[in-house]
């Protein structure tokens, strides 16, 4: 049975200098400055940077990449290339899914560019797990979401406007990689934590108070899914 749908809140990236990384995302990728120097916005989704002197590239890890959607991927890729952004895969068409490309930030986070007029901005996260069908059920039963087929082709889960896709494959845990973890928020973390524990979820960090700062969560905690995806669960002030 699916749970109530939680709100996708953030992607957390490991970088040597969080403030410099936030500036790069604003200047190179057009992100909006965040509510603190260590983060940026893509629509309502935060990309938050944590200090890691030597992050492992995200490709092939449990969180392989995240994606941004643009009206014209070919033009946007050319603009990124002129700005010095590393283009790993030039624009091409995927049958039924439209134009896509792949770039990489300077610290090893793989970012797919997709052309989806229905959802511009932050588009999806992409996990790598041995059994995608079991993983979809796990997330539906614990975090809710809506199962749907993107453009009638690609099976995924939707959390509001954000998609989650899953590929089959063995992968190392996300912790310590350039894409270290993702986060969902809820109005009452303590109540949600009790429900998740009843469904067999093990917390690697029990709920605790966030820093006394306007941008910080009221409460935060961490879990890992059965396939090594590190997940932050949080309760915000608003």
Structural commentary:
This protein is an alpha+beta fold. It has a single domain (7-235), classed as 2,3-Dihydroxybiphenyl 1,2-Dioxygenase, domain 1. 18% of the residues lie in helices and 43% in strands. The chain has four helices and 16 strands. It has an eight-stranded mixed beta sheet with strand order 2-3-4-1-13-16-15-14, covered by helices on one side. Strand 6 (86-94) and strand 7 form a beta hairpin. The two termini are 28 Å apart.
Q: Which keywords apply here?
A:
4 helices; single chain; eight-stranded mixed sheet; 2,3-Dihydroxybiphenyl 1,2-Dioxygenase, domain 1; alpha+beta; 238 residues
Overall 3D shape? globular
CATH superfamily membership: 2,3-Dihydroxybiphenyl 1,2-Dioxygenase, domain 1
Look at the structure and give the CATH class: Alpha Beta
Mean pLDDT: 95
Which quaternary structure do these chains form? single chain
Distance between the termini: 28 Å
Low-confidence stretches: none
Topology:
Layout: E1 7-15, H1 18-29, E2 32-33, E3 39-42, E4 45-51, E5 63-69, H2 73-82, E6 86-94, E7 98-104, E8 110-114, E9 121-129, H3 132-143, E10 146-150, E11 154-159, E12 162-168, E13 179-185, H4 189-198, E14 203-209, E15 219-224, E16 230-235
In short:
With 238 residues, the chain is an alpha+beta fold.
């Amino acid at each position: 049975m699916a749970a109530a749908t939680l709100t996708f809140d953030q992607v957390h990236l490991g970088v040597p200098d969080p403030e410099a990384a936030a500036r790069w995302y604003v200047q190179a990728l057009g992100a909006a400055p965040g509510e603190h120097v260590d983060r940026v916005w893509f629509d309502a989704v935060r990309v938050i940077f944590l200090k890691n002197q030597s992050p492992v590239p995200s490709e092939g890890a449990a969180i392989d990449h995240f994606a941004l959607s643009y009206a014209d991927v070919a033009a946007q890729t050319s603009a990124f290339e002129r700005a010095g952004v590393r283009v790993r895969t030039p624009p091409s068409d995927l049958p039924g899914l439209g134009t896509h490309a792949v770039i990489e930030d300077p610290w090893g986070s793989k970012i797919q560019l997709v052309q989806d007029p229905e959802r511009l901005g932050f588009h999806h996260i992409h996990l790598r797990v041995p059994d995608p069908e079991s993983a979809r059920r796990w997330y539906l039963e614990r975090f809710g979401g809506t199962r749907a087929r993107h453009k009638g082709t690609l099976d995924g889960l939707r959390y509001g406007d954000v998609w989650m896709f899953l590929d089959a494959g063995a992968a190392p845990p996300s912790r310590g990689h350039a894409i270290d973890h993702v986060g969902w928020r809820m109005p009452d973390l303590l109540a949600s934590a009790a429900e998740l524990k009843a469904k067999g979820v093990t917390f690697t960090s029990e709920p605790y108070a966030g820093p006394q700062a306007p941008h910080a969560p009221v409460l935060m905690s961490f879990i890992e899914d059965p396939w090594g995806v590190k997940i932050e669960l949080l309760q915000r002030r608003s």
